[in-house]
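pasting for ref
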Amino acid sequence: MFSPPPSPGLPALVPRPRKSAAGPRPSRVLRVAAWILGLALISFVVRAVVKKEVLVPVVGWALDNHEEYEMVGQYDLPDFPTPIAVTDKKGRSKWTVSIPPTYNFPLTTKEYADICVKCQEVATHVRELHGYTNPSQETQIDYYHKDPYFVDVGDAEKRGLLPGVGKAWKVTAEAQEGHLVGDKEDGLADKSTCKTSLTFVLESADAGLGPTLMMLWMAYGLAQKEKRAFFIDDSRWAYGEYTAIFKPPPTPDCSAPPRHEMLPCPHSARHLVVSTATASETFGKSFTSEYENRHRNNVDRERPIYDLARVGYEALFRLNDEDQPYVERRVKELRTMIKVKEGGYNDGMIIGVHIRHGDLHPYEYQYNGAYIPLELYAARSKELVEEYHNSSTLLGGEDAIAKKHSFSIVASDDPDVYDTEEFSGSLRAQEQIKLASKQHIQKANPDKTVMHKFVDETFGWEGGFFASMFWNLGRSTVNNANAVGESQTVYKPSPETTRLRGLMGRAYVMDLAVLGQASDAVICTISAMGCRLLAVIMGWEKAMEDGKWVNIDGDYQWAALTL
């Protein structure tokens, strides 16, 4: 009763009801997000452990300017062929070669050459990541050294370091698979994939056929030595289809591997690609160190390499169904011509003469920029006959009859050689396909009013084989001047151009076949690859041990390649 009345400004004794929040607090959103991320991370780890693979490797690759790009995600691989550095599930650096499965096969010669250079760069980088700076001298020259940090494409796909070929890649066009000689015809698709293989790509920036043939033979011999299945790709060969000149190679009992698994490097790759563009990688210093007989200083030093080429020659140098019978008949015909009737002591001799002119010049310094004089070939041919038949009778006397039955057969890239005074009494090695100079064609058409346009447009093979003439073969003379600097890989030859090139290739190999098989001795210049091929065709005993392979271009002994 004596208490003062309650003040209107004081709060009520009963607490006000709480207002409901308009939305969840930010901390609750973060907690939910954290739980979701945690569950996702746990699922990812469990999946990786169960499948034993890493789905997001760190990838780096080398570029032309030596920069290195690094990125995460297996589907972010470069869309061009290149060696890459990868990190496996244990964080260890490895390297492999990534070729997109849909990339055109075969790669260009430049791409193969670039990959070989980058392989060395990436391998060095990965080795440095493991604490090794410079490889030992033994490792550098060991042809069969296996890089412990290299992962083959098939293994990389199994480990998740490369995406592999999924269903999306099965739509790859046949054009992207290249053209392996005899692949489709022999039904290789029904066979199991080869465990190891070597594929030789015939495409070359070199217009000459000789270097490609030598490497082809050596590659086949090497494949047999290493127990690899052997394939030949002629997709972009300048001479056309392989089977237009040769019979198909022996067919392996397995099918070719996926094209993106065929690598130009390292040599330990399960499926190897070899071409003239990768010659220094496959047949370079380490190859020479491995296969040369270092205990010999004479030509015997090259015997193991020669044997590889000889194996390839015996298996692959089988001419097509039209040319092989002709060569056999021609060899038999020539050998019959040197037969001496009863009463003679010996048969005559056939001296094969191989003369290369064109854009190839001798090693001999005094003839640098020129050619070996034809009289030297003729004089050496006469000497060989006299050396043998001056004392070939039973009493060691001269066999004049055998000398009269001896003669020379000539093969040259220069059509005018056959009409020279030095070889007026000689025979052509083969007459199935002849190269004619423009001078001969004009003689065949003396009246300029007749077939005038034909004569003007005729491609005369003047002075021998020139690379520029070969690449322009079959092109219009109006466009030749603009075509000199054009990349030959970009230019697609016409069917007529391919046919003409094929005829040249057939003439070349028939010349080699007749010279190598019909001659008792061969005179040539080692600067020409055809000369080295002839030594392989003749056989080691005849060519080297008996000295019937005669080089008149300096004091050089036989060697397979000059890289």
